[in-house]
Sequence to fold (964 residues):
Amino acid sequence: MMQESISFTPQLAASAIARNLWLIPAVPIAASGVIAVLKQPRRKTASALAIGALSFSLLLALIAFAHVLSGWANGQAVRETASFTWFQTGASHVDLGWVLDPLSAIMLVMVTFVGLLIFIYSTGYMAHDENYTRFFCFLSLFAGAMLGVVIANSLLLLFMCWELVGLTSYLLIGFWYFKPAAAAAAKKAFLTTRVGDVFFLLGIVWLFAQTGTLLFYNSGTGSMEQAALTGLLAQPAAWGFTAASAIGLLIFAGAAGKSGQFPLHVWLPDAMEGPTPVSALIHAATMVAAGVYLIARVYPLMQAGALTGGTTTALTVVTWVGAFTALFAACIAVAQNDIKRILAYSTVSQLGYMMAGLGMGGVAVGMFHLITHAFFKALLFMGAGSVIHGCHEEQDIRNMGGLKKYMPLTFATYSIGMLALCGVPILFSGFWSKDAILESAHGWPLSHAPYYMLVFGAILTAFYMTRQVSYVFFGAYRGHGHPHESPRSMTTPLAILAFFAIALGALGTPAWPWFRAFLENGAAVVDFHAFAEPAWLMLLLTSCVIVTIGIGLGWMLYGSKSPAADQPDVIERAAPPLWAALRDRLYIDEFYGVTVIAFYSWWARVADWLDRRVWGGIVSLVAFVFGLWATLNRFLDTNVVDGAFDKSCEEISTSGGLLARIQSGRVQTYLRLLALAVVVLAILLFWSGRA
Amino acid sequence: MSLVFYILAALTVAGALAAVLLKNTVHCALALTAAFAGLALLFLSLDAQFAGFAQILVYIGAVAILVVFAILLTRDSETPKDTVYGPRPLIGLVAAAGIFAVLGWAVLRSAAALPHENASPAAAPNVTVMDIGNALMGRYVLPLEIVALLLTAALIGAVIVAMHEKEGAR
Amino acid sequence: MNPLTGYLLVAALLFSIGLAGALTRRNAILVLIGIELMLNAANLNLIAFWRYGPHPEALTGMMFAIFSIAVAAAEAAVGLGLVINIHRHAHTTNLDQMNRMKG
Fold:
């Protein structure tokens, strides 16, 4: 069912917490700046600063959440904004601002809480790394930037923090920059998300140009408010789209890049080159969720023009892309052997679920899965980190096994996370959030195909997670060396997250739909009769079937017999080409290499040729012409000008010489000349006399 | 024109030619003397007795002697194989011929305006020395004084010029 | 033919001969001889015009000729003195060698 449009009573004066909301991202960024100038050996100071800053942010986030919660409990919707004009150019204002409403409050709490747990985990995980200080500097910077994205009410602030998040992701993926694989992965991540960001920027600019304001909510004049949306709907773009859907699609392109939707998903698996806390924080819980959060933030725009019960072009595209990604990534995850890579593809798949949920079910459905996923995926990644740490940096699951007796705490928490991810009914939060998505997919008016894709994806999810757990924790240990449990700094956060992986489910059950009510400012009534509804019981049954098939198949193939390290996989033996295709990620990277990258290499060569031959040739030609001109000038100057001058001087000299011969010094010469002159004069005189 | 004139003219011209053409410079000087003599006689035939005698006295008596002296004093620098004429004498001849042509033509042109000789001849002027003296002291006293000055200067100058110089500048 | 014409022609001839000698002979003294001839030709001209002129009693021509004779004498003296002096220094009377004033 599609949500109705939200109506909030506008708040006139922002409260103190809303005005000071900017402190939440600012403090971690400031801490990052301080850590940056610390010397490398001051490790404890660095981590203490980072953890302290984020704790402070968590405190403020809880206060903000309490404020919004109290408002909701009183029936007063809270959406408080505060903004300031950064600068003015002509008639346009460039504003920066932040907003405090249920959506941002929930995200703030999630990001700061999970972030804090991962920070604490990192003190244990990165204890032996020599770049410990730099790690916390980047982590803190990332936390601040992500929080900036969450609270942003201004398109500009959102984009700035978005780019900053991308930058810190690059820095953290390539943290071990001396590994060529890590450096390449960082570059790939940055460039791929850049492709999405270009479209995002186009969308932002278009939105600003159309609505004239950068702010989302601004007492009726914001771009997500009714007046602006009506204007956008009335504006036709190209190919039958309205401006609203076109901008929505452009913004989704940016979200698709950051959230790893097909076809921009290729960077996420490679991003596993970074340290495991990075994978947990950035590529499971927060940064990749930023794309989903963005769509939720601009949901009024995406939804604009939808009739009651209907959908818009933008949301249809979101749904299809999400559903396809969910299935596609799940297929590939089946054939991976690196513990983190399986989880990476799982993340891509779950992000697809979130997008599909947003498209079909609305903000509450998508966001609920985002929140639950953040907790259990972070838990899974941190558990994987614990396994890697315990197996002395081993990452291939074929070289692990039987770890449940060496690392019992890790095993227990990991299993809870895995069961949550598989969506095991009732007890685990993953079930409730995924169930909501499947419910909305089942009721989607346009088509049932996404529903089937999501159901099949869920079966595959259960299957590959069971495969992974069997390989890692069951059977006999196939590796070399002695695995051991991780220190308490690492296992304590695991336990906390495991608790939430179970408990959060209670927030979104049909009996007490608190999450949806909170986000949509409705009333949350506890009503256990909702469990008795036939539609919901159908879904419950479907989920049980999914989980049973998935886990059962997995256990049958992998769990009961302990696979050997060097023997090929069961499915590989059965269908080698399918296995090879899945293991090689369906050749998407190779396809890109042949098309996009090859094109760019060719284009770079063309540009180089142009530059060297054509433009360089023109420059050389101009230089040559100038040289020619200079030579001609020199020739003219030497031969014509100087030559003429020299010649005339020579002539004067010669004629002077000639004339000087008259002055022979010989008297008789002078006399002769005199006589001749007299003769001539006399003749002239007589002649003229006669005339 | 009387025969006397022709004879005297011939003598003068012959002497002049000889003075210019002869190789031996002493012979030239003597020929010059002859030319001067012829000129003196011409003056006499023109009833300019004083001028004629002045010619004899000054020119023949002084200038010609002076020329001979000069020739004799500078004789040792001439060698027999020296050429008589300087380089390119043709130009000089051409110039002189041109002058003669112009003068001759002018004279002959204007001869038609003159009365014929057989018309009443001009009376011979009666010029006495006393007349000349009166003229010199009267009308021409200034030129006389100036010429006197000139002669003095020339005298002193010639002496100085021709004098042997002592050792060291004077 | 008027006797004046004859005398004038003779004077012209003498003048030309004198000029030719002055212009062509190598010896400096012979140049002076030529100049004397020229002067004498002029004197002859003067006397001839005095005799056949309109006012012979004014004695103009004669006076002019007498002064001319005086000046010619002075000039001959100085000129020959110069030639002698040059001969003393350069041991030559060759006019062509007296060209230190050349340009």
Q: What stands out?
A: The radius of gyration of chain B is 21 Å. Chain B has a mean pLDDT of 87. Residues 1-78 of chain B form a domain with the Four Helix Bundle (Hemerythrin (Met), subunit A) fold (CATH 1.20.120.1200). Helices of chain B lie at 3-21, 25-45, 49-73, 89-111, 129-137, 141-162.
